[in-house]
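Progress narrative, work stream C.
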Amino acid sequence: MDRNKYSAIATRNHDFNKPISREKWQRLLDQLNLKPGEKIFDIGAGNCEIPIQFVEKFDVTATAVELYEPHLEGGKQRAEGRRTRPALDVYGERG
């Protein structure tokens, strides 16, 4: 089985493409001390929820890289309509 397809199936109903609960993620966010304008870089960003939340909560600039096209497109769609532009750039294999 294709690892990316398996991941997409296994995480399709999750907030993140990572094995972390919403509660644990919120605790992690609460402990970070990022300043507005700082930059984060997420390689293997999945559906981009993590960099989106960094942008929304901390007013940072984020770059998300995801090579699996369905996750990449999902991440771009997820970012639309949320307070991420122009602070979030999403890149895939084709740029």
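Work stream C, second folded protein:
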Amino acid sequence: MKPRQPPASGAGGLRPELEGLLQGFRDFLVVERRLARLTVESYGLDLRAFAAAVQGLGAGKPSAWDRSVVTDHLGRLRREG
């Protein structure tokens, strides 16, 4: 199995507020949940890929994320293998 790479960012990457949310979540995982570094990195990669995908579809604000946004993203991942 090859290591996962962070998703390629668009011209501007993720919006700063999304970057802040992701960093806050990673900090929570480290400080409060005491998860291993590789686990935190893995979660971070998955969440960054999700955030980049939905931002690219025009749903960049977390308030716009609902069940259908998440299931659509998971469906795309499954189809891509």
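The first helix runs from residue 16 to 31. No further action is required on this item.
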